[in-house]
Amino acid sequence: MTGMRRLAIAALSIGFLVLFYFTVHAAYKLFASDLPVPGLALAAEAEAEADAHAYRLVVITQELDTPFWLQVKKGALSAAAERGVSLEMWGTYSSDRNEFLKQIEIAIASKVDGIIVQGLNTPEFTYLTKIKAAGSGIPILAVANDVPMNDSLRRTYVGSDHLEAGRMIARQLVKDMEGTGKVVLMVSDRQEDYQRSRLKGIVEVLRAYPQVKTEIVASGDEKDAAVSATDELLNTQPDAKAFIAVAANHANVIIQEIEKRSQVEPYFIYSFDDSPDSMALLKQGKIDALIAQSPEQMGELSVKLMVQWLDGKVVPLNPDGYFTNIRVLRAGEAE
């Protein structure tokens, strides 16, 4: 009996010791997990710092599928990858202004770090950028199409100097026309800031040449309206010698309507668009000259400046904007 009791006591003692060991071991592991491990803590800190700089940016446009904006996208994505920031390209495929404005509103609600957007001169755009985005502390940068800073509170603008572009095309026109003749300036009914700047630059140059008569014609925003306006001016302005498509999408319409009546060759026709369609017309000699822009450079520079502003490296950004390269491309120079 005594031997059995001793055996039971020994077994209980061993069980207690085993249980004690595992309890202490588990407690040690739990405690040790809270201790800093050399190297591991530094790696975690570096990872957290990298995440803090991984800004989320969005580029929003009304013309998502055009060659121009595909080039902007290419430049923006390249600059974003180089700087380790997240960038998405949003927009519409049919110049749907309501959908475009909705995209801006979604970006603001998503609390992105910065919005790079094609400027639009409407009260709705002003409200979203000046009130909602600014109220949420989200910086706005205008690209390609500018908007007045007071109306939008945009930090800066990246794109062509449209005032200078207007001057450049007007100088080319004067040279081609030898300083005399009537020129029709085709504009949209609802002019954006870039159209007003182009028109101002053209008129500024032509004012110095009294033998060059100018006629400004509002040709609508839709193709049908532009066709009707062009047809009417060809009837009422038979002495017109040249056309400048201030709204670049009207160049094709002008040429098509002229070709229904006569040859394009006697007319001087100018545009501000170096899209594949316009370049084809330039090679054919139907467009005499156009302004070639630098959309890829716009994308790169806009992302670079946005990141610099978010990092606090360039504060404030130049309110007058950062102009990308433009040049006059003549029919004989088209590749």
Description:
The protein is elongated. Helix content is 50%, strand content 17%. Helix 4 (97-109) packs parallel to helix 5 (123-135) and helix 7 packs parallel to helix 8. The strands form 2 sheets. It has a 6-stranded parallel β-sheet, with helices on both faces. Strands 7-6-8-9-10-12 form a 6-stranded mixed β-sheet, sandwiched between helices. Helix 6 links the parallel strand 4 (140-143) and strand 5 (156-159). It contains 12 helices and 12 strands.
Shape: elongated
Low-confidence stretches: 24-52
Strand content: 15-25%
Order of neighbouring strands in the sheet with most strands: 2-1-3-4-5-11
Order of helices and strands: HHEHEHEHEHEHEHEHEHEHEHEE
CA radius of gyration is 32 Å
Q: What is the straight-line distance between the termini?
A: 111 Å
Average pLDDT rating: 85
Please summarize the sheet with the most strands. Answer: 6 strands, parallel
Q: State the helical fraction.
A: 40-55%
What count of helical segments does DSSP give?
Answer: 12
Which assembly state applies to the chains in this document? Answer: single chain
The computed structural class is alpha/beta
Tally of DSSP β-strands: 12
